[in-house]
Write a structure and sequence with these properties.
Chain lengths: ~140, ~110
């Protein structure tokens, strides 16, 4: 498999990686760690097969002014990273549990009342997109 | 007609308002070559919108990206970790993956 990108872990991501690695190790009581072994394997595969080969995908980029950050959703976990084709480097920023399905109701209400316009403007996100973003319509 | 923030009328040249009868002229060939968004109207009442499939997917992806970003922003823990990760990169507090892997494995064998 061709490896095009060198992977660097930010100190935060390094701690995350160590945490997932430790959880995937069998403990002294022989406690079942199958779930964490699967999660850690997902992370390892993503690092070797996606982030080091084809990290730059528009569909994975965050919106607005955060579009230089990518989020790879692996179901159980998500990896946030930045990638630079000219340098051939992927910086892993954070690895954490996926937070899909967060309740955006309060945020939508704040936007509708005009209480979040400054933040959205700063991020370069259209207000109308937030108001129309209904997770029930778009997650299926 | 939509207006820009400075109150000027704005005409989007990529949007074409057409009557229902236009539907009858659409076929695979001209749908394939469609480079505008068509708003189908009947008696000045907008009824439907036709966009290219790729354009619809692009819009869907954009909304998905906005949703992902908003979910991250309202999750304090995740947002804080992401900012910390970015700060690490700015401060050059990074380590090659191979070195991190070697360290955790070495720690495991030395237990």
């Amino acid at each position: 498999m061709a490896t095009n990108y060198r992977i660097e872990l930010a100190a935060t991501a390094e701690r995350d990686y160590q945490t997932f690695y430790a959880k995937a190790q069998p403990d002294a009581d022989g406690k079942d760690t199958a779930y964490f072994v699967s999660v850690f394997q997902l992370i390892e595969n993503a690092l070797d097969e996606t982030l080091s080969v084809s990290p730059i995908k528009k569909a994975r980029a965050l919106a607005g002014s955060l579009s230089f950050v990518y989020r790879l959703n692996l179901g159980l976990v998500s990896i946030y990273y930045m990638a630079y084709a000219d340098q051939g480097i992927t910086y892993v920023l954070h690895i954490g549990p996926s937070q899909d399905g967060a309740d955006l109701t309060s945020l939508r209400q704040a936007v509708a009342k005009g209480e979040a316009e400054e933040v959205l403007e700063g991020l370069g996100i259209e207000k109308s997109l937030v108001l129309e973003t209904d997770q029930q319509d778009w997650t299926n | 007609m939509p207006e820009t923030r400075d109150g000027m009328p704005y005409i989007d040249p990529n949007v074409q308002f057409v009557s229902v009868s236009k539907l009858r002229t659409l076929n695979a060939s001209n749908l394939h070559d469609l480079d505008k968004t068509l708003v189908i109207q009947s008696e000045d009442q907008p009824l439907a919108v036709i966009v290219r499939y790729e354009q619809f997917l692009e819009m869907q992806n954009e909304r998905e990206r906005v949703r992902t970003t908003l979910e991250m922003l309202i999750n304090n823990e995740e947002f804080t970790a992401l900012l910390a990760g970015m700060q690490d990169v700015l401060s050059k507090k990074t380590k090659p993956l191979s070195a991190v892997r070697a360290e955790v494995r070495k720690r495991k064998t030395s237990r």
